[in-house]
């Protein structure tokens, strides 16, 4: 599932920013950024196990909020001089793309009958037995 893959990729990049924050002894900020970053892909993954489109859409909404939380933290850290602007520009672009993908995907889920069970093949759900999907 592309939205999940991209969530993992941006999450890994955000965790590297968190590493930089730890080097500056900003441990609480680093912890908060990691938690929000992991929440993006984790909620997409958790939602893929939902039993209805409405339930899946709720998990996408949580991932959407976490994406905004990450962007807000990056802007705050930059304004506060904790990280350089050039470190976050690409990340903010990717987070913006994530929010657009999440919005469209959630809308598509809700346009279908909300209580309809999620059809795994149509949703492109991640197959955990295929480690090549991490490449």
Structure at a glance:
By secondary structure, this protein is mainly α. It is built from five helices and no strands. The chain starts with a helix and ends in a 12-residue tail after the last helix.
Please supply descriptive tags for the structure shown above:
135 residues, mainly alpha, de novo design (two linked rop proteins), 0% strand, elongated
Topology:
Blueprint: H1 2-23, H2 27-48, H3 53-79, H4 85-111, H5 120-123
Helix pairs in contact: 1-2, 1-4, 2-3, 3-4
Task: Tell me about this structure.
This protein is mostly helical and 135 residues long. It has a single domain (2-116), classed as 23S rRNA-intervening sequence (de novo design (two linked rop proteins)). It is built from 5 helices and no strands. Helix 1 (2-23) runs antiparallel to helix 2 (27-48) and helix 3 runs antiparallel to helix 4. It starts with a helix and ends in a 12-residue tail after the last helix. The model is unreliable at 119-135 (pLDDT under 50).
């Amino acid at each position: 599932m592309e939205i999940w893959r991209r969530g993992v990729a941006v999450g890994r990049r955000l965790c590297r920013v968190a590493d930089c924050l730890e080097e500056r002894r900003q441990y609480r900020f680093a912890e908060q950024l990691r938690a929000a970053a992991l929440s993006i892909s984790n909620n997409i993954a958790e939602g893929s196990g939902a039993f209805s489109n409405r339930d899946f859409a709720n998990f996408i909404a949580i991932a959407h909020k976490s994406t905004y939380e990450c962007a807000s933290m990056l802007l705050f850290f930059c304004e506060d001089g904790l990280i350089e602007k050039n470190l976050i520009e690409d990340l903010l672009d990717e987070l913006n793309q994530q929010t657009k993908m999440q919005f469209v995907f959630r809308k598509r889920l809700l346009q279908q009958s909300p209580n309809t069970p999620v059809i795994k093949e149509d949703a492109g759900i991640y197959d955990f037995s295929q480690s090549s999907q991490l490449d």
